[in-house]
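Hi Y.,

Following your request, here is the sequence exactly as I used it, all 222 residues.
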Amino acid sequence: MEMNEMIKKRRLELGLTLKDVATKLGVAESTVLRYERKDIQNMGIDKILQLAQVLKCSPADLLGWDMNQLIVAEDSEAGIDEECGWVEGGEETIKIKLLGSLPAGIPIDAITDAIGDEEIPAAWLANGQHYFALRVTDVSMYPRYLDGDILIVRITPNCRSGSDALVYANGAEAVLRQVQHNDDGSLTLKAYNPEYAPKTYPANATDVAILGVVVQMRRTLL
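Below is the corresponding structure, written out as C-alpha cells. Let me know if you'd prefer a different format.
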C-alpha cells in the first residue's frame, strides 16, 4: 500500500475528517487532500513524522512498508560464513531482502527495489523485530565500511549514542552515519571519512529521524 493510500486508510479508521488532520498538522485542508490523491509526492520527513503521530501509526507503517515482505523464506540448512560470528552451521535462518544500493552518505529519497537477499538467524525475529539489508556504494564511511559491504539494519526509531544508523534527514533523504546524542539534546550525524563534515540537529528537530541501526556488516574478501 502506498503512502497516500495509507494516509486515507488511517484517517478513515480513526474517524477523522480532512479538516481534523489539517488542523493538527497546521496545513490547509486542501493540502491533506493532495496528500491522499498523491498530488504531493515528495513529503518532508517533518510532515511524515507529524502525520504518523496524528494517525497513530509508525513512520514505517505510513510509508506503506509491509514488514512481512522483507522476509523472503525460511531455510533451516543454509549457513553464513562463520567469520560473521552470528550464525552457526545448521542454525535456522531467515532470508531478508536486500533492498538495493544505498550510498553511505550520498542522500537518496527512497530505498530501491530488492536486488537480492541476505540470511539472518530466525531467532532475531522472535521479539517482533524487523530487518533489511543495504549495500554501501561510496567512501563517506571509510574505513569502517567499504564500497560493496552489505549492512544488516534493524528497523527502530531509536539508537544508542555512537551507533551507526540509517537516518532520514533534510526532506526524507536517507544517509548512513554514526549517531551522537549530545548533552543538550541535539543530535550529531558523523561520517568516519574526515572529508565529510558532521552535521548537528537541534533538540526536537523535525527534519531528522532514525530509520534503523546497523547490527552487522558483511564483506566479501577477494
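The first helix runs from residue 3 to 13.

Thanks again,
Q.
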